[in-house]
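Quiz preparation item.
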């Protein structure tokens, strides 16, 4: 049994290779913006239609012919998939124009467009880039994405199918409730993920660098100074350091949870709305989305049973008797008290136990990532969507 994985490596392109990659990105970005324009004019572009337009454009323009047809086709394919996804997902916006000043380069190549020889990445146009092989590839890659990050570093992300070894069988179950004070509260306090506050520790240094950027900013249309670019790079480095620390903590915590539990009940929490609240900065520092994504993906790869439980009424339901309180609990109330059975527990700990009880009671699901209803009192099942086996929440938290 195989699984599709990504292996990412650092690239060290020279001046010639860097110029070639940026030139290729300029062509692909122009094609993306042209596809967006096709949609805005009332047409319904598909990948087949866009491919015909690409063939005609390459026949007319020598500038496009100088680039890789594989990378250009992959750009149009990515646009067509993004457009289809925007129609299927409610609230998903249509693909937008990629502006030069706020879009990072990203190129995709299939097996026809790249090769690995002499431990170097060979791309169309005679581009040869040294790769920092931090580890060996487990199989032959089927595609690669070459991209640049905010610090100006180049990376190559290879996609391949590797053989998987089944994780050792374990017993036990755990429920996970997300929060801001504590990023992840579980049914077992040993597996809690505390809020480390990496971004908060970097906030003072980041604010200092941003003020320096503001002082050195030149009027629009004037080339930025070297001092401004240096301050911008330093600010990006500080922000990226905090993000990497959050990702590292999430990976270590997820591995610890997955290695010791066969059933993982996760609150299907959407932290996007927190960005419009007063807790936006602390929610971003907690990085709930990154921790949740890492836990679900690692649990699925290990063959564990992962159940996504909607957050509706998990805080208001008693984990002992299943009784739901009549009034909502404010965020200032940190202790849950049940008026029926007298059970008293930490608010988040009680929610984690409710999530686990819901997952153990409901056995419907597919593909090892299952979705359960929330209320312990409601036994009726809700019909899931045909494409995504997700049971919608029965109310607001």
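Solution:
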């Amino acid at each position: 049994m195989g699984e599709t994985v990504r292996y990412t490596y650092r690239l060290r392109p020279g001046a010639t290779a860097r110029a070639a990659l940026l030139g290729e990105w300029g062509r692909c970005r122009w094609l993306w913006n042209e596809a967006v324009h096709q949609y805005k004019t009332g047409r319904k572009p598909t990948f087949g239609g866009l491919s015909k337009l690409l063939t005609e454009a390459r026949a007319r323009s020598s500038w496009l012919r100088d680039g890789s047809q594989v990378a250009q086709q992959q750009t149009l394919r990515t646009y067509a998939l993004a457009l289809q996804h925007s129609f299927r997902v409610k609230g998903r916006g249509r693909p937008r124009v990629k502006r030069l000043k706020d879009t990072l380069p990203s190129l995709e190549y299939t097996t026809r467009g790249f090769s690995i020889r002499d431990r170097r990445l060979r791309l169309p146009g005679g581009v040869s880039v040294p790769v920092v092989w931090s580890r060996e590839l487990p199989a032959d890659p089927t595609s690669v994405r070459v991209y640049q990050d905010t610090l100006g570093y180049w990376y190559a992300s290879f996609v391949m199918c590797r053989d998987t070894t089944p994780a050792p069988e374990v017993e036990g179950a755990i429920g996970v409730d997300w929060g801001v004070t504590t990023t992840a509260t579980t049914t077992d306090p040993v597996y809690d993920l505390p809020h480390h506050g990496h971004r908060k520790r970097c906030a003072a240094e980041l604010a200092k660098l941003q003020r320096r950027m503001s002082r050195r900013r030149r009027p629009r249309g004037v080339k930025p100074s070297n001092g401004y670019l240096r301050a911008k790079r330093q600010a990006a480095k500080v922000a990226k350091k905090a993000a990497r620390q959050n990702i590292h903590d999430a990976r270590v915590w997820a591995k610890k949870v997955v290695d010791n539990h066969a059933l993982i009940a996760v609150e299907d929490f959407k932290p996007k709305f927190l960005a419009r609240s007063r807790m936006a900065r602390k929610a971003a520092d907690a990085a709930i989305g990154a921790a949740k994504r890492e836990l679900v993906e690692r649990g699925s790869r290990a063959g564990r049973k992962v159940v996504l439980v909607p957050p509706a009424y998990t805080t208001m339901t008693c984990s002992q008797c299943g009784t739901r309180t009549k009034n909502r609990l404010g965020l200032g109330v940190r202790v849950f008290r049940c008026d029926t059975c007298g059970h008293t527990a930490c608010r988040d700990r009680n929610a984690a136990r409710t999530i686990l009880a819901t997952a153990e009671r409901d056995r419907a699901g597919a593909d090892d990532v299952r979705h359960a209803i929330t209320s312990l009192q409601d036994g009726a099942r809700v019909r899931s969507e045909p494409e995504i086996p997700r049971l919608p929440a029965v109310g607001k938290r």
